[in-house]
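Inosine-5-monophosphate dehydrogenase, pasting as requested.
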Amino acid sequence: MTQNQVYEVIIYARVSNHSQKDDLQNQIKFLRDYANVKGYIASEVITDIGSGLNYQRKGFNSILYSDKKQKILISYKDRFVRFGFDWFDKFLKSKGSEIEIVNNEDLSPQEEMIQDLISIIDIFSCHIHGLRKYKKQIKEDKDV
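Structure tokens follow.
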């Protein structure tokens, strides 16, 4: 980023489900505080409630398809996308935008892989739980 380049500063926060709404507010507050310390004026707060594996999130896509040069503030990489962060980062850079990760942890490849595997297992266990609930509803429904 050059000194004379002008960015629209965006705060982006995401949680996986509605039960984590408090965490969403905590992320927003943390990112606003960070922006203030850095002297940024955030023009917009964009939020999503949904899986980091779901690339159809409304807020996420509004960032990707924006024609504005944006500096997107996120708390962690996985708040933007669960997998493929580097690709999305390069894509946004090619459009003149950039992502600033506030809590940028340097993880070893092994630690990163472990986090990815835990995420995958968590996602599939939620899907299995949902299927069991659906199966139970079908068994209880006499009309089916």
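Note for the archive: The chain has a mean pLDDT of 83.
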